[in-house]
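Help wanted!
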Amino acid sequence: MLTFTLRRLLLAIPTLLLISLVIFLLVDLAPGSPASEIPLTVPPEVRMKILEALGVNEPLHVRYLLWLKQFFWVEPLNGFDAIFGTNYAEGMQRIISYQSRSPVFPLIGERLPQTLTVIGTAYLVGVLIALPIGIYSAYKQYSLFDQFGTMFAMIGFSVPTFFTGTLFIIIFAVWLGWFPTKYDTTLEVTDWDSFLTQLRQMAMPVMVLGLANAAAISRYMRSSMLENMSQDYVRTARAKGMDERTVVLKHVLRNSLIPVVTVIALGIPSIFGGAIITENLFGVNGIGSALIQAIRGNDLPMVQTLAFIFAILIVAFNLIADLLYGMLDPRIRYD
Amino acid sequence: MAEQALPVLDVRGLKTVFRTRGGEIHAVNDVSFHLNRGEVLGVVGESGSGKSVTMMSLIRLLPSPPADIRAGQVVLNGKDLLQMDAEDLRHVRGAKVGFVFQDPMTSLNPVFTIGSQIMEPLRAHMGMTKAAAAARAVELLELVGIPDARKRLKAYPHQFSGGMRQRVMIAIALACDPDVLIADEPTTALDVTIQAQILELMKELRRKLGMAIIWITHDLGVIAGIADRVLVMYGGQVVEHAPVGELFANPQHPYTRALLKTIPKISGAREARLKVIEGQPPIMTGAPQACPFRARCEYRHDPCEKVNPLRRGGGWSSSGPGP
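Answered by r_m:
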């Protein structure tokens, strides 16, 4: 397993380099220039100076290498400095956002916690709803519960989040007045009351996204359970006199979880990507809305960096999914 | 066929029906037989003749729906398994009745160790501690001839060959010292040398442990080697029931005769073509009124459309007269 992990990690390096190049070239193709954000009252020579300072006049390969150096060397050094109070990175050029003229990483750092709490919780809630539904639907195939589960999944799949979100706002915020319509990013959890307020404002975005996530995962769980339910080893377990609980929740579930865990692990990077629509709908100031703002504002370094971070996460969780697969299924050993 | 003691298993008038979209399939029709302590009862018949379904019906192992056990009694040690509640039945399965299935490659759970799968019934039925169950599991693996048993407890099924997996299945079936072992074509999925090994193992285990065995097979050679008595099944009913020697020497039912004729001869001229029984076994959409074998029978005559001739042995069906 260790050799496999190391080999995969080494292989990830050229993969990520290639991805970074593709992202860089694609973003570079985008129309518009950082200068378009500079007011027209600024004289042309000053404008040129600003562009030079940003390094946008350099040739493509120089800019790419510079960005690589900044991403893999300068920014980690800055992070190191911030943690240990050293100043190794002093005087080095960081990745600068065109919009705010400040380093990109602290900006991302400000946005990430919002996304992780709201979208992360939604994913967790989705998984926790989906697994029992999937298991029980499969166990009682074609029962009333299964029909409801299927309907629930259909709704979760086919109704877009901007619709369910708006519906939730109308029902729960406007008519019933249970939850606030907007997510307040500035709220700090200090005591029980503020914690409850936080829970209340999280409830709607979490439910909207959780429903969408649960729909897909519950279907995977159900079909995986059904596939295993008819296997010979299940008959063996029954013939051994195991109770239904042991048969279903031990023998069948353990086998059924193997593909589902992979699906769940591969879905985790999307948490970091945020849910652009849901974040916008509820005013959650997360990564998703940061990305949208950056694209609108021609903020190429920000777009590039965010896209590349997502790429890293996807590669990483692919590896994690493979490792989990090996741990759950004894037939798969990677050495 | 005089018996002094009561039979360990007594099946009377068992009827199992599958409810499908296309109507009802009468898979087991009024099957009656008994099993004495320590004897080996062979059950033969083509695929689809109802052998497996009968044996699975005994301990209600068929998924319901679609299977529905309509009538009958299955008396094991004086108790009717068909009347038992689920919890009591659970303590019969695996404890009093052990089951060995046809395909050892898929009958073991791939994600649990051999040891844990053997220990499960021990802990569930005999209330053993983990340590006691592990010790017993080692004993069982040694009993079924798996060397280095203690180390093998931690192995997974995929690390075992087909023959070894079938040995493990036998160990699981024997774990709680059952009174009856039902072996559903335990050697069909194995190659011939392994078949012989498993057969020898079963004979030896029966000598050592003295349990009664129901051995389902369509291999008449295996039956000749291991069984004391034989049930011949066709169309979901027992068409003939006789001690093994008598069955081979003097088969009564035309189906039994046809089956015996399909065995290739070792001596004499080599046959150009292997003999077969022409046609397919019937799909029983209703309880048999006439002889289910009549369409393929070479001795067919008029009464075959009216009566259902069953030959010899115990467990007479109500639908047909004696010989």
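OP: Thanks! One thing I noticed: The beta strands of chain B are 9-20, 23-35, 40-44, 67-76, 79-80, 97-100, 180-184, 212-216, 229-234, 237-243.
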